[in-house]
Amino acid sequence: MRAAAMALALAGSLAGCAKPVPAEKAEYVGTWQGPQMTLTIHAGGRVLYARRRGNTSTSVDAPLKRFENEDFIVGVGPLETRFDVARPPHRAGGAWRMTVDGVELTRTAR
Fold first, then answer.
1. CA 27, 82, 23 angle in degrees (round to 5)?
2. pTM (2 decimals)?
């Protein structure tokens, strides 16, 4: 129980580190899905990511630190993960799409 309380306290403190998504990047907000990849960007700045590659899976649950051009960086302190955005959010074929880390994603929820 003590460990669970500490984990909750840590999660709460990390949530306070998130920077809200700037108004000019509002189209990034939502849940995006592609082949073996899900990315959720909350307006308040929380980023959730899950990806499978063969037998390997990667996940990130971290606060947004900043945008650099179209890319965005998440993490805490010196620990960062950069998401390479080759194509920012755009309308295509009646859906919102963007390409992140080489994967075309479609927004499934806002």
1. 25
2. 0.84
Residues 6+ away with beta carbon under 8 Å from 60 = 47, 48, 49, 74, 81
Distance of CA 19 to the CA centre of its chain: 12
User: Dihedrals φ, ψ of 20, to 5°?
Assistant: -55, 150
Tell me the per-residue pLDDT of 33-82, one tens digit each, with 9 for 90 and over.
999 999 999 999 999 999 999 999 999 999 999 999 999 999 999 999 99
Query: What is the amino acid identity at position 78?
Result: P
| Count of H-run helices and E-run strands, the chain | 1, 9
Return the number of other C-beta atoms located less than 10 Å from residue 75's C-beta. 18
Residue type, 14: L
Q: Are 97 and 104 in contact (CB under 8 A)?
A: yes
Neighbours of 73 (CB within 10 A): 15
